[in-house]
Amino acid sequence: MADEADIANDAILADMERRIAQQRAAANKPATTHCVECEEPITPARQKLRLDLCIDCAQLRERASRAFRRD
Q1: What band does 58 get if pLDDT is binned at 50, 70 and 90?
Q2: Residue 1's beta-bridge partner residues?
Q3: How far apart are CA 33 and CA 3, in angstroms?
Q4: What pLDDT is recorded for position 30?
Q5: Rounded to whole angstroms, how far apart are CA atoms 38 and 17?
Q6: In this predicted structure, what is the pLDDT of residue 18?
Q7: How many domains does the chain have?
Q8: CB contact at 8 A, 44 and 58
Q9: Which of 71, 28, 33, 66 has its CA nearest to residue 51?
Q10: Which residues fall within 8 angstroms of residue 52, CB to CB, at 6 or more apart?
Q11: Residues in contact with 43: Cβ distance below 8 Å, sequence separation at least 6, in sequence order
């Protein structure tokens, strides 16, 4: 019979496997050339990082997340 530590360990392993699968899928997708929010071109440096937002939209999203963050 599994105890709490075994259950927690299984949950952590499942989460890690899911994240690894997401990273592999992201690494295999082609680089996005235009922002998914505003459709402006994404700089080549951001394309190499496989980012899908231009710098302006990324900054706006970060500011918005900070505004609604609970500390």
Answers
A1: very high
A2: none
A3: 49
A4: 80
A5: 33
A6: 96
A7: 2
A8: no
A9: 33
A10: 32, 35, 36, 42
A11: 54, 55
Please, are residues 53 and 61 in contact by the beta-carbon 8 Å criterion?
A: yes
Give φ, ψ of 34 to 5 degrees.
-130, 145
- 66 & 38 share domain: yes
Strand partners, 34: 41
Q: What's this model's pTM, rounded to 2 decimal places?
A: 0.56
Phi, psi (degrees; rounded to nearest 5) at 41: -65, 145
How is residue 25 written in tokens?
A: 């899928």
Q: Is residue 39 domain-shared with residue 69, that is, in the same domain?
A: yes
Q: Is the dihedral angle over the CA atoms 30, 31, 35, 41 positive or is it negative?
A: negative
Name the residue range of residue 54's domain.
31-71
Do 22 and 35 reside in the same domain of the chain? no
